[in-house]
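REVIEWER CHECKLIST
Item 1: Sequence provided? yes
Item 2: Single chain? yes
Item 3: Sequence as submitted:
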Amino acid sequence: MIWALFSIMAGLGDAVSYAFMKRLGKLDTYVKLIFYNLITLPFLLFGFLFYSVPQVSLDFYIVIAINSIVWIVATFLLMKSLETGGLSASIPILNFTPVFLIFISYLLLGEFPSFQGLAGILVVVAGSYILHISSIKSGYFEPIKSIFVGRGLRMLVVAFLFGITASLAKIGIQLSNPAYFMFMHYLFVSLALTMLFFNKIRENKKQIKANFKYFLVMGIAVAFSEILVATAFKLTLVPYVISLKRTSIIFSVIIGFLFFKEKNFRHAIAGAAIMFIGAAMILLS
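Item 4: Structure as written out by the authors:
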C-alpha cells in the first residue's frame, strides 16, 4: 500500500504549507496566492526525474483550465480563513473533502466506496462536533451551527471545491502523468495570477523580499505534497487518497499548538483524531 504512505506524507507537506501561510498572515492575500504557486513551480520539475513529458490531447488542457480556476478560488478562500482564524479550527473542516468526494468522484470518475466508507462520513461529522465543542456553553447544537456560519462555512466551501479539483486532477493525470499534470497546473495558475495581480507584486516588493525564505519552504512543502498525492491518484480511488491526505489536520493542530500557541488544543486534537478515524474507515472500506 505504497499509495497510503504517499498520501500520509502528502498530508505532512500540506500541514507545513498551511503553517507558513499563517506565518505570512499580514502579507497581501493576492501576493501570497501568486507566490504560493510561483515558488512551487520550479520544485515540481523534480517530478520529471521519475516521469517523462507525455503527448497530450486538447482535453487535457481543458481539464487544466477548469481545475485551475476552481483551485484558485478554493485556495484564495483558504488563505483568507487562515488569516482570520487558527490552524486547529480551520484546517480540520477540510476533512469534509472526502465526504464530498464520495459523490463528486462518483459523478466524474464513476468511483464509489462501500457501506463502511459511507459509515465513515458519520464519524467525520462526529469529529467536527468535538472540534467545536468549546462553544457548548451556548447550546448543544452550537458547535454544529458554527460549521455552517462565518469562517466555518467558508472552510466547508473550500472542502467542497477541493473535492472537485481532486477529481479533475485524477482525470488530468489519466490524460498525462503526475509530474506533467502538476507542473502544467501550477504554470497555468502562476501565469494567470501574475497577469491579473501584477500591481500587487510591485506594491509589496519589500514584504516579498522580507518573507522570501518562508515562501521558499512553503514551495518545497507544496511540491513534495503534490507529486506524492498525484502518484497516489494513479494507484487507488480519489476519496481514499484524500482521506489519508487529510492527516494534515493532525499535523496542523499540533503545529498550531506548538508554534502559534493556539487554545482549545485538547478539543481540537480530539476532534481532529475522530475525523481522521472516519477518514480511515473510508479508506478501509
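Item 5: Key structural point noted by reviewer: The mean pLDDT is 82.
Item 6: Recommendation: ____
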